[in-house]
Each structure stands twice: as structure tokens, then as C-alpha cells.
Design brief:
The protein is mainly alpha-helical and 231 residues long. The protein has ten helices and two strands, in the order αααααβααααβα.
């Protein structure tokens, strides 16, 4: 799941029947939203510097081709804003999903091998975890909202941003490929950092990405000009 502390405690809750307050560590959905915003704000200087250097390099290459020392690089300000928000959000999202136990590479490899052999902290039964959350907490609990609804909503910007910013991603094949690839890589990497590996996480993240793509196509029909600044 996206949020590590809730993930582990949630599994413990389903097995032991502890109450939701103990399971979620007194953290609410709003706490994670605040953390997300803080990470995005902290990443602004890094992104601005990296993007500025990239644009400067592009301008120099264009100048070399044209035989000019200085070339004014044209860019769409709205696209740059959307690109910045997209990158910052994905940076924050990766910070959440890649929290775990980092040790020496050999130890991480050994941990992954042990988990594969024993199945520890792994679930490959579709909808098993979702059913357990619903059985214990119902639809209204913060823990259900964070780990189930949150895993869908947090990947909506991934699917939406790909469609919005890059024209080559605007077909069903690319949407299916990229919205499946990222959650798959996340689950694979979590195998090495002692995070829960769960097919339900993949399903929810994939649904979130596809939902984002669907929202883009709906908005694209309503506001055709919104597609103009993609590359």
C-alpha cells in the first residue's frame, strides 16, 4: 500500500481484531495530504534547478544547430506549470511508496529471496486484502479510505498527466502499458525493502491510473483546447 505504517498495522489489525485507532496510529487522511504537500514544496527548488538546466542545454543545442550563440527558447508556460506539478506530485508519491528498510544490497537481495521462498508479506489472491479491510472497517473507516480509496486516487494524476503532457501516450495501448508498469515496478521494489507485496495494491493503483486516463478523455471532449500544449 501507499502508506507503510498503515499497511503493516492494517495487516496486524485484520489478524488480531484490534481497533482502528490502534491500527492507523492516530493518523488521518488529512495528515497524509499535508505530508504530500510538504514533500512537493520541498521538491520545488530541485525541480526548478533541474528543469532550468535542461532548458538551458536545449537552448544551447538549438543555438549550435542554428549557428547562433544565443537562442530564445519558446515554451508553453501552462504546460511548464502542469509538468512541474506532475513531476512534484510523482516525486512525493514515490517518497511514500518507497519508504522501507534499506540495508546493504546483499542483505536486501537475501531478504527478497527469503520472501519469495516463504511467501512472507506477500499476497497474490486478488481482492483478498480489500475484502479484509471491508470486513473489519467497512467503507467509512479512515484506514479503509487511506489504504483502499487512497491507492486508487493517488494514481489518478499518473494516468491523467501522461495523457495530458505527452501526445504519444494518448492511445489505449500506452495507457494500459504505463498504468500497469509503474505499480508493477513499485511492488517489485517493495519486495527488497520489507514492504508488503500485494496484488490488490497493483489492482488499485492500475485502476487509479486508468481512471486518470478516462478523466483526461472526458475533459478532452469537453475542452478540446486543453490538449494543445502536449508534446
Amino acid at each position: 500500500m501507499i502508506f507503510r505504517e498503515c499497511r503493516y498495522r492494517a495487516n496486524y489489525t485484520v489478524c488480531t481484531g484490534k481497533n482502528e485507532k490502534d491500527a492507523k496510529g492516530n493518523r488521518k487522511v488529512t495528515d497524509y495530504i499535508v505530508d504530500l504537500i510538504r514533500i512537493m514544496l520541498a521538491g520545488i527548488p530541485i525541480y526548478v534547478l533541474a528543469r532550468g538546466l535542461l532548458l538551458l542545454r536545449r537552448a544551447r543545442r538549438l543555438g549550435a544547430k542554428c549557428g547562433k550563440k544565443k537562442v530564445k527558447l519558446e515554451y508553453n508556460k501552462l504546460r511548464e506549470l502542469c509538468l512541474g506539478l506532475f513531476v512534484l506530485f510523482m516525486m512525493a508519491l514515490m517518497t511514500f511508496v518507497l519508504q522501507g528498510e534499506y540495508t546493504a544490497p546483499k542483505q536486501m537481495m537475501a531478504l527478497a529471496k527469503m520472501r519469495i521462498n516463504t511467501g512472507a508479506g506477500m499476497n497474490f489472491v486478488p481482492f483478498h486484502t480489500i475484502r479484509n479491510y471491508y470486513r473489519v472497517f467497512g467503507w467509512r473507516g479512515d484506514l479503509f479510505g487511506i489504504n483502499i480509496i487512497g491507492n486508487i486516487l493517488m494514481f489518478v494524476p499518473w494516468g491523467y498527466g501522461l495523457m495530458l503532457l505527452w501526445k504519444k501516450k494518448r492511445h489505449i495501448g500506452s495507457a494500459l502499458l504505463y498504468t500497469a508498469f509503474l505499480p508493477m515496478m513499485i511492488e517489485f521494489f517493495q519486495l527488497f525493502i520489507n514492504r508488503q507485496v500485494d496484488v490488490d495494491d497493483f489492482i488499485l493503483n492500475f485502476l487509479g491510473g486508468m481512471l486518470g486516463s478516462l478523466v483526461f478523455w472526458i475533459f478532452g471532449k469537453m475542452f478540446p483546447k486543453a490538449k494543445d500544449f502536449a508534446i
